[in-house]
Design goal:
It contains three helices and no strands. It is mainly α. It starts with a helix and ends with a helix.
């Protein structure tokens, strides 16, 4: 693995973690009307989808990191 690819994988993993955190914060917000809560739930679902996409990018760039985490 090149240093550039390692940096890209690290960036993708940090971006995924950030998106997961944002989705969790939206889920914790229980204020407002049911429409507001439903909108936040849809937004958190989209954020989690994007996070999963970034995680798959990181796995494709640096597949060895998944073995280390296990």
């Amino acid at each position: 693995m090149t240093k550039t690819n390692a940096g890209k994988a690290r960036w993708a993993r940090s971006r995924a973690a950030s998106l997961w955190q944002q989705a969790n914060e939206l889920d914790r917000d229980r204020t407002g009307s049911w429409e507001g809560r439903a909108g936040r739930r849809r937004a958190s679902d989209r954020l989690r989808t994007e996070a999963a996409r970034f995680e798959s990018i990181a796995r494709r760039i640096d597949p060895g990191r998944d073995d280390e985490a296990a």
